[in-house]
Amino acid sequence: MSTTQEAFRNAMRCFATGVTIVTVDDRGQVHGMTANAFTSVSLDPMLVLVCVDRKAQTHAHLQTRQRFGINMLSEHQRSISEHYADEERDRKNAEQLTGARFDRTDHGTPVLEAALAYLECRLMSEQDAGDHTIFIAEVEDVVIRGGRPLLFFQSSYWTIGGEVE
Ligand SMILES: Cc1cc2nc3c(=O)[nH]c(=O)nc-3n(C[C@H](O)[C@H](O)[C@H](O)COP(=O)(O)O)c2cc1C
């Protein structure tokens, strides 16, 4: 090995991403987790993946429910991202603390209101990957609302400044 975990982390901080909240039902309660290790995988069939730390509570919830939402955050939803990334968060008062409001799909999957877009996903397969698991899921439904995205770059939140000509 000629590199270190610190160098790897610093390199990954150079990669700007959007920010999502993974939402999953937990016995009638909304469980959410901030995630940026998310990408589309295939168009036919429509597949996405999200990488989840094996220690995250979300990990077990995805395995139990098999169905979850990916909510792409808007530039106005930074406090929601911070809340659902905080391991010590007050899980009962998310709506009051952050303004996050949730609807439910016909399948009972929680949907974050005012996100740029939402994907309803059904778990298809899992792949162990070091201290994370890669969850690959089929996209069953999409809702697009539009707006400007929340971005994550160099461990800070950003929004789009303008299109590169
Ligand atoms: C911008 C950002 C992106 C994150 N992306 C991921 C991710 O893709 N996968 C992951 O497992 N944790 C990710 N995290 C960390 C989790 O959000 C955090 O550990 C959370 O508290 C886990 O919640 P849970 O234990 O309720 O599942 C991210 C945190 C931030 C701030």
Keywords:
165 residues, alpha+beta, Pnp Oxidase, Chain A, 7-stranded antiparallel sheet, 3-stranded antiparallel sheet, 44% strand, binds flavin mononucleotide
Describe the protein in words.
- The protein has four helices and twelve strands; from the N terminus they run H-E-E-E-E-E-H-E-H-H-E-E-E-E-E-E.
- The protein is α+β, with helices and mostly antiparallel strands and 165 residues long.
- It has a domain of 90 residues: Pnp Oxidase, Chain A (Roll), CATH 2.30.110.
- Strands 3-2-6-9-10-5-4 form a seven-stranded antiparallel β-sheet.
- The termini are far apart.
- The mean pLDDT is 96.
- It binds flavin mononucleotide (FMN).
- The site of flavin mononucleotide has 16 residues, from strand 3, strand 5 and helix 2.
| Percent of residues in helices | 10-25%
CATH class of the domain at 17-68 and 111-148: Mainly Beta
For CATH, the homologous superfamily of the domain at 17-68 and 111-148 is named as Electron Transport, Fmn-binding Protein, Chain A
Oligomer: single chain
What count of helical segments does DSSP give? 4
Task: Count the E strands.
Answer: 12
Shape: globular
* Uncertain parts: none
Structural class: alpha+beta
- Enumerate the strands of the largest sheet in spatial order, edge to edge or round the barrel: 3-2-6-9-10-5-4
* Relative strand content: 35-45%
- CATH architecture field of the domain at 17-68 and 111-148: Roll
Computed over alpha carbons, the radius of gyration is: 16 Å
- The run of helices and strands is HEEEEEHEHHEEEEEE
* Distinct small-molecule ligands in the complex: flavin mononucleotide
Q: Report on the biggest sheet.
A: 7 strands, antiparallel
CATH topology of the domain at 17-68 and 111-148: Pnp Oxidase, Chain A
Mean pLDDT: 96
End-to-end distance = 40 Å
